[in-house]
Automatic annotation (TrEMBL):
<feature type="transmembrane region" description="Helical">
    <location>
        <begin position="49"/>
        <end position="69"/>
    </location>
</feature>
<feature type="transmembrane region" description="Helical">
    <location>
        <begin position="137"/>
        <end position="162"/>
    </location>
</feature>
<feature type="transmembrane region" description="Helical">
    <location>
        <begin position="6"/>
        <end position="28"/>
    </location>
</feature>
<protein>
    <recommendedName>
        <fullName>Urea transporter</fullName>
    </recommendedName>
</protein>
<keyword id="KW-1133">Transmembrane helix</keyword>
<keyword id="KW-0472">Membrane</keyword>
<feature type="transmembrane region" description="Helical">
    <location>
        <begin position="107"/>
        <end position="125"/>
    </location>
</feature>
<feature type="transmembrane region" description="Helical">
    <location>
        <begin position="75"/>
        <end position="95"/>
    </location>
</feature>
<keyword id="KW-0812">Transmembrane</keyword>
Amino acid sequence: MAVLLLAGIVFTLILIMGQRDLASVVVVRNISHKLKGHSLSTNYWQAGIALFAANAALFALAFVILFFLPYGAVAGLLMCIPLSLFIWVIFAGVWRGSWKDKAKMAFIGSSFFLFFLGWIFWYYATLEPAYPGDDLFMAWIGVIIASIFTLGAMSVSMFVILRKC
C-alpha cells in the first residue's frame, strides 16, 4: 500500500511539473478554443459548478473502478489522476475573467473535496462498534488516510487552476 501511495505521489508530481506542456497539447487548445465564447469562460458560478460536477464524476468513476475491478486502486491512480489534471488544465486555460473570479471558480469547483471531507468526519463520528469491545483504531487510520488524500486532491486542483499561464 505504501508503494502505491508513493507511486501516486511521484506520478502526480511528474504530471504537475509537466502541466505547462499539457496546456499546449493540441487537444487542450482545441477544447479551450471551443469553450472560450461560452459562459464557462467568464461566469465563475457556472464554471465552478461544472468543475464541481467534473470532480464528482471523476470521484464516482474512481469509486466504481476501485470496487469493481481487480487491482482497482492501481487502475484508478493511472486513469483518474491524469483525467482530473487534464480537466483542471482545461478550466484554467478557458478562464477569461479576473484572477479574483478565477479563485472563486476554483474554490466552488474544489468544494466537492470539502463536502467529501465533511462526510468522512461525519461517518467516523457516527460509526459504532460492530460488537462490544470492538476497537475503531483502524477506522481512525482510514479517516486519516482519506483526509490526506482529499486535502491533497483539493490543494493540487487549486494549484493547477490558479497557476499563472
